[in-house]
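Appendix B, example 12.
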Amino acid sequence: MVGKEIWGDVTSKALRRHLKTCKDNVCQCISTFFDKQNGGHDGMAERFDRMMAPNAVKSGIPTHADQIIGRQRALDEANDLYNNQGCGGPGAPAHAPISEEAMRNATRGIPTIEDWETKHGRPMPEGDYKPGQHSLMTTPEDSGGILDWEYWEEVTGLTGVALGAYLIISEGSRLFPARNLVPIP
């Protein structure tokens, strides 16, 4: 396992948690952290897209901005660690490049209401954004109705078969009434 002596004092809780899972290759581990922070249902790429989507509302801007800024700070710290470990360059230990999109989003400016209005040619609606609301399925535009596994893994702490069983029992039980509530003729 990669020890604290290798990465020093890490202030980002997300990065510190991620580094604890690293086995040997800190370069690959940091590259994976970039992908995790950038991708997924609540990653930076998705939040940038939501901020500029046609159905975005003003009240969602601060929430998405705060989340993106937090991820960008963690990635800035991860990038320093990546460079300090000699990762990514020629002759780097187990070369593990960071994706261009993740690196671009790690330093990208936060979209503003003015950016949205310029892109869409109309005033941004006020709306009522409710952060933290997730559903079992992502929206059809996001993934074609595919199950949001990453969200449920994070919420339940389960993976694989255990997560599948949980979802079948927990979410599936909502589809069928309890057996003793159905009258038997």
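The two ends are 62 Å apart (CA to CA). The longest helix spans residues 60-84.
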